[in-house]
User: Fold these one by one.
Assistant:
Number 1:
Amino acid sequence: MDKKFIYADNAATTRVSQSVLDAMLPAFTEAYGNASSIYKLGMDAAKTVLASRETVAGCLGAKVNEIYFTAGGSESDNWAIKGAAEIGAKKGKKHIITTAVEHHAVLHTCEYLEKHGFEVTYLPVDEYGRVTAQQVADAVREDTCLVTVMFANNEIGTIMPIAEIGKVCREKKVTFHTDAVQAVGHVDIDVKAMNIDMLSLSGHKLHAPKGIGALYIRTGIVLPNLIAGGAQERGKRAGTENVPGIVGLAQAMKDACADIPAKNAVTSQKRDRIIKELLKIPQTRLNGHPVERLAGNINISFRGVEGESLLLMLDMNGIAASSGSACTSGSLDPSHVLIAIGLPHEIAHGSLRLTFEEDLSDEDADYIIQTVPKVVGRLRAMSPLWERICKTEGLNADGSKK
Amino acid sequence: MIYSEKVMDHFANPRNVGEIENADGVGEVGNAKCGDIMKMYLKIDNGIITDVKFKTFGCGAAVATSSMATELIKGKPVEDAVKLTNKAVIEALDGLPPAKLHCSVLAEQATKAALADYYRKNGIDPEPIVGKIEDCADCESCGS
C-alpha cells in the first residue's frame, strides 16, 4: 500500500491542475512568441493573452481592459496600495483604512507607508475576524485615500461583508481595494455589483502555477505605473508577458469560477463534518466564523499543544497542513489574526489549519478525523503546559471534566 | 525552513520523555506566551545523573533540543552536566535553523534549572555553580 498522503494546505498553494497544464504546455514550446512581435507567432501570443484577459475579466464581472497581469497576489497588493497612496498624497489625502487581520502583503505595505507620512487605521475585528461596513463608514475621514479589506481571511477563512463595505466606500467616494487571493474561485465575485475598485488575485491558489496573478483596476483609477519599460499591460507593468502563466491563470479561473455554489455545497459539508468530529477533542475551539467562512477552511486550536510540532507529527502521518503558530513563521509571536480575534497567546500557538477542496474523499476525511486526535493526544502527553492546565482546572489527563 | 535528519529523528522519536517521581532535581523554563516550555527531571546518585526525563511544549526544535540535552547528560557526573552548552546541543543535532537557535538556549537553561534545584535541595547555593537562570521574560528572542 502506498504511504498515505493528504494535501490539506490548499490555502498555501495548490497543485497545477491537468487542464491548466494542458493549456500551458503549447505556450512553452510551440506558441512561444513574444506578444509584442509583429509576425504571426507574436500576434498569436498577443491573441492568447487577450483571450486570457477576457476570461479573467469575465470571471470577475470586469471589463477586459481593467485586468492587469502581475506576478502574484503580493505584487498586486503592493501596487494597488502604494499606487492609491501616491494618488491620494497628490491631493493631500494621506489616510488609509485597513483591518487587523490582513495578509502581510497588505499589512507590511501599510507599515511601509506609515514610515512615509501616511496614517493607517487598522480596524479591529470581532471574535470571528469580521469588520462591519459601519466600522469602515465611521473610520472614513476627509483625507482617506484608500480602504483595503481582504475578501476572505487566509488563516481562519472568515469572509468579510465586501459588498456592504464597497457600497459605503462608493457613497463616501473612497477607493476600495480588496485582497481576494483566498476568495477568487471559492466565492462568487462581481466587482461592479460589489463596488470594488481594485482586486488582487493569485494564480497558484487556484491550480495555476506560482508567479502569475492579476490586479483588477476599475476604469477611472489611474494607478501609477509599477514597472517602467515596454508597453506591456498598457504601459503600466513593463516586461515581456508571462504567456504560459497568463494562459494557465485564465484556464484556472475558468475552471474555478464555474459552479462555485455547487462545489461549495460539497466542500462545506465535508468541512462541517470534520469540524464537528475534531471539536469532540476536549479543550478545543473553532477559529473563524461558523458560517461566513470559506467552504474548504478549518482552523482549530488545541490547548496545550504547539502548532509546529502538530504539523510535523501530522506530516509523519501523511497529512500536510498549516498552522498559525509562531514557529512556522520564524518569529516567536503567534498569528496576528488569532491574536486579533482575541485568542490568548498560549492558545494561538496551538492552531491547526486544514484547507481543501471538493475532491477531498470521504476516506481521507475519515483519516483526518481519526489521526488528528491521536497526534494531539501524543503531544499533550509530553506537554508540561497541558499537565498544568489539567492540574489547575481539575481535568482528567485526556482533558475531559472530572 | 529545513531541519537536519537528526532534529527530525529526535522529534519523531524523542529520547527520555516522561517524568521521574521524587526526582532529585526538577527545572522548568520558558513560558506559554512564547510557545515553548521545557521541564526536566533528574535522578542523581552519588553525583552521577542516573536518569533524566523531560516534557516539552513547543516546536519541533524545542522537542529535539530537549531530547538531545537529556542524552548528552545522562550517565554523566553533575559537574559535567553543568557545563552543557546550547552550542553542544546544536552540534549534536547537526545544526538548527537560525530562527530556532533560542530552543537550544532553552534546553541548556532547562538542564541548568534542574541542576540548580538539585543543588538547592542539597543545601548548596546553585548560582556560583550553574550561573543565573534567566527569566524568560528577559529573553531577546521574544519581541513581547
Number 2:
Amino acid sequence: MRGLKNMKLPRWLAPIRDTVGVSRWMFWAGVVIVAVFVVMAIFAPLLAPYSFDQVSSGGVDFPKQHAPDSTNLWGTTVGRYDVLSRVVWGSRTAVEVVLLAVAFSLVVGVPLGLMSGYIGGKLDRILVLIMDALFAFPYLLLAIVIAFLLSDKLEGFFLSDLFGAGVVTAAIAITAVYVPQYFRVVRNHVISVREEPYVEAARALGAPRRTIIGRYVLQNVIQNVPALATLNAADAILTLAALGFLGYGIQPTEAAEWGYDLQRAIDDAGAGIWWTGLFPGLAIVMLVVGFTLLGEGLNDVINPLVRSRPTEAPDIPAAGGEVGGWAPEAPVGIDRGRDP
Amino acid sequence: MSDADDNVDSGEDRSEGDVAIAPGEPLVELTDLETTYSVRGSFLDRLRDRDSGQVLAVNGVSLELRKGEVLGLVGESGSGKTTLGRTLLGLVPATSGSIKVGGEEITGRSEGQMRELRRRLQIVFQDPHASLNPALTIGALVSDPLRFHGIERDRERLRERATAALERVGLSPAEEFLDKYPADLSGGQKQRAVIARAIILEPEVLVADEPVSMLDMSVRAKILELMLELKEELGLTYLYITHDLATAKFFCDRIAIMYLGRIVEIGPAEEIYREPRHPYTQALLRAIPEPDPRRAVPRDLPRGEVPDAVSPPIGCSFHPRCPRAFEPCGWEPRDLRTALESRWTELSEEEFDAERAVLGDLGALDSSEREVVIPAGSGHEGGDVMAIFDSIREAAPDDPLWRGVESMEAAGDGVRVRFRASLEPRPLDIGGAVVRCHLHDPEAADGGSVNGE
Amino acid sequence: MSAAEENAAILEVADMRVWYGTRGDPVRAVDGVSFSIGAGETLGLVGESGCGKSTLGRGTLGLLPPMASVSGSVRYDGRELVGMDPKELRDMRGPELGLIFQEPMTRLDPLQTIEKHFRETLRTHEPDLDDDEVRRRSLEALAGMGIPPTRFKQYPHEFSGGMRQRIMIALALVLNPKVLIADEPTTALDVIVEAQILGILADLRRNFDTAVLLITHNLGIVAEACDRVAVMYAGEIVEQGDAREVFAEPAHPYTRELLRATISLETTGLNYIDGAPPSLIDPPPACRFHPRCPNAMAVCAELAPEETTGGGGQRVRCWLNGPEERIPEGGREPLEREEIAAAEEA
C-alpha cells in the first residue's frame, strides 16, 4: 500500500492515495477479496483438483454426497461432483458473467443515458418511460423472462463461442435488469451537467454536439459509473445465483454455477450433509461482500464529500496567548433552534 | 496527424463572405430584437396545465456594434442584458427581429450554421471557474476551439498554439499552466485562461459578460487592462455586459443602459457620464459606492427593485421606481398597491389591522386596467376607503403616483380610481445620446397630449 | 484608540487566532488579531478574498467547523466567549450576537412562511412570548426593513433577492442583538439594492445602538457605511482606525494599494496589486505583505513590523511608519525581489 504513494494514477483515481480510515479499509478489503476470486477464475484449471463436471478420477467414481476427505477436500455432491472444484470453477462463471453483464450494461446504458439527458425532448420521454417500466418490473422475473426467451438462441453468437451460450444468456438477462440503473444515473447527471456554464461555453466556442457530449459531458459524468458498476456487480452475483437456483441459469454440464449447486444442496441440509451447501454459499457471500466493499470504497474515494474525512483541529502554540477553544459547531444561519 | 492538415488550415483564414469592415462601421446590427422564454409556473400550475407565462427578456432592442469599439451594456439583474448577449451568439433563439453580422442575417440559422459563425463571435462568461470544464487540462481547454473547428488536429501544434495564447494573456511561462487543471488556478488566472480560449480563434467580436465581477478588486483592473491590450493587438470589438457603471467608465466607448428588456439610454460614454438623462441611469450612477468616507450612503435612490419581467409595468417600465415620473408614464392599479403597502410599513400593528379591515379584496389592484373599483371591507363604505387614500396623499402629496391618477372618488361601497392614459416612451435624440424618457419628450412633457396606446 | 472608545467597547477581540487543521501544516486563517467595536459603531473589515475575513467573523461567534482551533480572547459585554460552553454560546447567538450571511436565499427555509421563520426565531430564545407579541414584534422588525405586513404569510421564493436580504436582517434584528456581524451582505445584490441595504445598516447603528462588524471586499462600501475600518491581510490586521482618517491618509501600503485598485467613478486610472495573497499555511516571514509591497525595505523581510500610530491616529503595522529606532542599520534599503509575474496573481 505504501508503494501506492508514488504510483502514477489517473486523475480520477488519484484520491485513492488520500483515503483514510474506514473507506480506505473498505476499499482495500474489497480489492483483496475480489482479487482472490479473479485469480481463482483465471487459474481455475490449475487450482481446482478436478474439472467442474468430473465425477471420477483415475477410473474410480467419486462417491455420492461423500464427506470431505483426502480425495475430495470439500466432499462431493449428490451428482458426485467435487465441491471444491465446483466452487473454484464457479468463480470463473461468476466473474465471466459479471464482466459481460457490466460491459453490456455500460455499452447500452451509458450512451442511452447520455443521449436522453443531453438531447431531451421526446426521445428522453420515451426512453425514460421504457426504462422506468423495466425498473418497475420485478428484477428476477425480468431476468427469467429474458433468459427463457434467449435460451438456445445464442448458439451462433460470437461471444457464445468464447464464453459458452449459457454464460452469455445469463449475462444478457442480468444486463436487462441493470441497464435502467446506468441509464438513470447517467441521464440525471447529464441533465445537471448540461446546464453547467462550461457546456454552454463549449457551445459558444463552436463545439459540435458530439464533441460536447463526449468531451465535456461524458467526462464529468463517467466518474460515478465505476462505483455503480462495482455495486451492481455485487447484485449481479446474487441475480446469477438466483437464476441458477431457480433452474433458469447455466446448465451444470456447461459450467459450474454456485446457485445451481445451492439448489441441489437443499435436500442435503436436512440430512446433515453440510458441505454441499456451505461452500458455494460462502463463495457467493464472500464475492458479494467483496464487490460491495470495493464499490462503497470507490464511492468514498470518488465523492469524498459524501462522508467527510475528518482532520484534527491543530494546536496553536501558546506564544499567542493561552490555548482556548470551544467545541466547534457547523455554521448555521440565524440560529432557529435546530441543532445543525 | 499528418502535416498536410497544417497546410490546409493555417488558422488565419476567415470564413468566406467576409467583407472588410472599416473601423467605426457597424459590425453587428440588431434590429427590433426580441427574445422570450417561458417560465415554469408552480407545481400546481403545471398540473393544471396552465400557461405559466412568457418573459420578454429582450423587448425590441435595436443596437449596432461598431467595429473596433467597446460597447457597454449596463443593467441590473433581470434587465435582459445577459440574454441579449446570449441571443447574439445564438445560444438562445431570437423570437423576432434581426441580427446581422457583417451584413449577414444570422437569426433562424441552424446550430450547424451558427458553429461557423462562432469563430467570429466569442464570449467570456462571468464565472471563470464554472466556464472551464473541470475534467480537462488548461492546455486542452485553451486549444479545444481549434479542434472544434477542425483548424488544427496535430497534438504538438495544438500545444504550441495553446502556449502562444496563454503567453499572450500573461499566463507565462505557459508550460507551468498547460498541464494544470482549472481547480489549480486562482480566479484571475482562470479568467485569463478563459480569455485565451476565446481569442485563440481570432474572433472579431468578443462578448464579455461580467468578466470581472467575480474577481477580487485587486485583480479587476489587471484583467480589464489585459482586455484593452488584446483589443488593440487583435483589433477586437467588445460588447461589455456589466452591472457596474464604474468599470464601464474605463472600458467603454459607448454605453447602453438596459432596464427590463429595453434600452432606455444609449450614447457615447463621455456623454452618459457627463450628463445622464434617464432617471434610471442617474440612479445607477448615484448608487455606486465611492471609497470616500465623506460621502454618505445615497438616500434618494429609486424605491423597490426591478419588477418581475413576467408582467412588466405598463408604459415606461421604470415608472414605479422613478422619482421623477409624471402623468404619461403609465400609471396603473399596481402602483396604488405599492403606495398602500409602503404606508403600512409605517403603521403600528393595530393601525394596520384597522385599516386593512376598511379595505375589501385588493385583487383589483393586480390588474392593469385604466379604471378600477377598490371595494370596501364589510361594514365599511366607499367614504372610509377614500379617507385612507386621502391620508396617503396628504402624507406625500408629491408622490409621482398622484400625478398619474386622473380621478378618484367614492362610489357606493368602494372607490373608483381612474388613471391617466399611458404613453410608451419613444427614443429621443438628445446631445448625441438616445433616451427613452418622457421627461425629455416635449410632446409628453406638457402632460396633456395623450394619444394612448 | 481613545479611552472613550475603549470603555464603550461591546465586543473586544484580543490576539485571536483561528487555525484550521489539514493533513499537513495548519492553515493560519486568523493569526493574532485584535480589535474592538463599541455600541452603535460600525467596523468595516476589508481585504482580498483568502485573507481570513470570513473566518474572523465566524470565529467571533464560535461558528467554526470541527477542524478549527481558536486561541486568544473574545470578550462580549465583559464575558469571555473563547472556551465558553457551546450550549451557552448558542443561546447567545441571536439575542446577543446576530449574523447576516452573503446568500440570503440559502438561509431561508423554502417550505416555511416568513411568519414561521419569525415565530421559530423568537420562540427559541423567548419561549414565553404569546402569539400576539410574536406577531407584533415580527411586523415591527419587517416594517423597519420596508416589508409591508401584507407579505407576512408569504414564502421566501415570493420575494426578490433584496427583499430576502431585508428579511434576513429583520430576522437578525427581531431579537435585538447588541452585535451584528454582516458577512458580505450585499455581494449578491444589484447596485441600487446594495445601496438600499447599506442605508439600512447605516441606520441601525443610529437607531438601535447596534454594533456592526461589516465584512466586505469593497472599500467603497466601507467608506459609505462604516465608522472605523480594519484592513486584513493574510490573517492579520495591518491597519485599523477611523474610516475618514484611514481613507484620507492610508499608512499601510496595502491599504493604499487596495484603495488605488478600487474602481469607482472617481478613479482616474487602472491600478492593481501585483501577485496574490499568500498561502496561509506558510505565509511569508516578517511582514506578510513584503513580497507584493511596492515600498518594501530590507527590514520588511527580516522583522515582523510592530504596531505604531499612523498620521491619522490609526494603528498600523508597517516599518514605513516606524518605530525608527527599531529598524536595524541598512534596513531602509529597498528590498531586492524577483518580479511578480501575472502567473502568480489572484
